[in-house]
Write a structure and sequence with these properties.
With 548 residues, the chain is an alpha/beta fold. The protein folds into 3 domains: 92 residues, Winged helix-like DNA-binding domain superfamily/Winged helix DNA-binding domain (Arc Repressor Mutant, subunit A, Orthogonal Bundle), CATH 1.10.10.10; 230 residues, Aspartate Aminotransferase, domain 2; 155 residues, Aspartate Aminotransferase, domain 1 (Alpha-Beta Complex), CATH 3.90.1150. The chain is built from 17 helices and 18 strands. The strands form 5 sheets. It has an 8-stranded mixed β-sheet, sandwiched between helices. Strands 14-15-18-17 form a 4-stranded antiparallel β-sheet. Strands 1-2 form a two-stranded antiparallel sheet. A hairpin with a 3-residue loop joins strand 3 and strand 4. Helix 3 crosses helix 4, helix 7 crosses helix 13 and helix 8 runs parallel beside helix 9. It is globular and about 70 Å long. The termini are far apart.
Length: 548
């Protein structure tokens, strides 16, 4: 192999006898190449469920690439559900059959309303996939004329030969005005860094603040990508319980280096952290010296009352704010922001330069043009109305079977509710007043058969259980229903299918409960068979039957 060829291409045969190749001269980013090869290895069985993958440090050294390349590849696979970070023990290949019972969770062809093309072993019965998974925005209503104007301005701007690690000054000024107006963030351009999105910003924070072995709090259940970033940086991820209002601030560990939270719309359960609990969280951070990382991922979209200002405003020295355009505009834009105290931001910028990490200059110019012209604000107003209509469809249809949850007197916004699940709280919608998804809390035995049955009828769903990371396992079970990427007609059709399946599962659960109650009162199966009740064999009482 020539010297030039050696520098262009690096090949690894790892401890699992897996050849991995990174082509440095290729058009595809190295992280995407690596993620694609690992994904193919898991699809073909070369990497099996439960198998531990190499550490980012070891794999980067073996391939001769930066650790950032491997970290980004792992983050992508973690977010897609291919990898699973286990508390204190490393990163493993996930068991995808447990995520989507009855088949592979990657539809063949292009799911309706989705920009992603994935493969599967079967097609839906009616030939159309309806993608109701969360995390996707509606991109087809972007004002094309405004989009072209922004890119004309970007095309006319000179290219930088030495990009600023903080980002384009013009965009930082526009973002400061936007965040002050929309989120009451008291930051000037000197306190804002332009990132490539939430994951990139989170990794920069972790790389700057964390040392191997540091303990980091993450909401439980919570965003899988955050756990992946912290684990990749060698941190010990500590699960922090949530309730109907967000992260439970009572009894947070005192030795956390930082805590990651989604206070505007907790992912995935949807709680909004009330002001009293926000103040308690900031007081805890001041007392312990911990930092708070606030992920403001879909705070622009609230449908009942005005959103609370960003948590960052309570203590800019203790709270690092992360934001992104992936939900408000499109994930393909690849622009986000990191807001922090200027001294800390300087440290993050130096670390970023060490990585050679940057956000595309032309993309930053285009986004600055959208903000400067007011086109982005107009787009946000249109999308709030559009998502409100979609949310109304979801709540109306699913709410017939699972009524929306409202804060009870026993778990007031001012107090701390019991974390996790509550048998009396199942069969309900959660988090329906904001964002681009709702959670449907269900009894544990119902979830897997329902997801499989919905899939057979062409509806793709995600589950709450995927967002747990601790060995203790899920305390809340159910669905996470997104309404960002499908059309309103598809959302209505998909929700009716899900509602029918929910209604049938609930009837079965009530039948089981009734038969069990009769057996208990009657003193045994013999007397239960004589008691009035629904007809059917006695074995129906043992479990909820499979859905069609």
């Amino acid at each position: 192999m020539s010297t030039e060829r050696h520098f262009e291409e690096t090949t690894l045969r790892s401890h699992v006898d897996l050849p991995l190749t990174v082509n440095r001269a290729g058009d595809v980013p190295m992280a995407a190449q690596l993620a694609g090869q690992l994904r193919d290895a898991m699809l073909t069985g070369m990497l099996k469920a439960g198998e531990r993958v190499p550490s980012t440090r070891w794999l980067a050294a073996s391939l001769g690439v930066s650790r950032t390349v491997v970290t980004e590849a792992y983050q992508q696979l973690y977010a897609e559900g291919w990898l699973d970070g286990r508390h204190g023990s490393g990163t493993y290949v996930a068991d995808v059959t447990a995520i989507a019972p009855g088949g592979d969770d990657r539809p063949r062809g292009r799911p309706a309303g989705s920009a992603r093309s994935r493969s599967t072993r079967e097609d839906p019965l009616d030939g159309e996939w309806i993608d109701l998974r969360p995390g996707r925005a509606w991109v087809l209503d972007i004002d094309r004329a405004a989009w072209r104007r922004a890119w004309r301005r970007a095309g006319a701007a000179p290219l930088a030969d030495d990009p600023d690690p903080f980002g384009l000054p013009e965009l930082r000024e526009q973002l400061a005005r936007h965040l002050r107006r929309a989120r009451a963030v008291p930051a000037g351009p000197e306190g804002i860094m332009v990132t490539r999105g939430t994951g990139n910003g989170l990794d920069l924070v972790a790389a700057t603040l964390l040392r191997p072995g540091d303990r980091v709090g993450v909401e439980e259940p919570g965003y899988r990508g955050a756990r992946a970033v912290f684990a990749a940086r060698g941190a010990e991820v500590v699960p922090c319980p949530v309730d109907d209002h967000g992260v439970v601030t009572d009894n947070l560990p005192g030795d956390l280096r930082l805590i990651y939270t989604t206070p505007a719309h907790q992912f995935p359960l949807g709680g909004r952290l009330p002001i009293t609990r926000r103040e308690r969280l900031v007081a805890w951070a001041r007392r312990t010296g911990a930092m708070i990382v606030e992920d403001d991922y879909d705070a622009e979209f609230r449908y009942d009352v005005a959103p609370l200002p960003a948590l960052h405003g309570l203590d800019p020295a203790r709270v690092i704010l992360l934001g992104t355009l992936s939900k408000s505009l499109a994930a393909d834009v690849g622009v986000g922001w990191l807001v922090a105290e200027p001294g800390l931001l300087e440290r993050i910028a130096r670390r970023r330069e060490d990585f050679g990490d940057r956000t595309s200059g032309p993309v930053q110019t285009a986004v600055a043009a959208l903000l400067d012209s007011g086109d982005l604000d107009r787009h946000l107003r249109r999308m709030r109305l559009e998502y409100a209509r979609r949310r109304a469809v979801v709540v109306e249809i699913l709410g017939e079977v699972c009524p929306p949850s409202r804060a009870s007197a026993g778990a007031s916004a001012a107090g701390e509710g019991a974390p996790g699940g509550d048998p009396e709280g199942t069969w309900r919608l959660r988090g329906d007043t904001a964002g681009l998804h709702v959670a449907v809390e269900l009894p544990a035995p119902v979830v897997a058969p329902l997801v499989a049955a919905a899939r057979r009828r062409g509806v793709l769903l995600d589950v709450i259980e995927r967002n747990y990371g601790s060995a203790a396992g899920p305390r809340v079970h159910g669905l996470v229903v997104g309404y960002g990427s499908a059309t309103q007609a598809q959302i209505a059709k998909g929700c009716r299918i899900v509602a029918d399946l929910l209604a049938e599962a609930r009837r079965d659960a009530r039948r089981v409960e009734h038969v069990g109650r009769v057996e208990h009162v009657g003193g045994g199966a013999a007397r239960a068979s004589e008691a009035p009740g629904p007809p059917g064999p006695a074995h129906e009482a043992s479990e909820v039957r499979s859905l069609p």
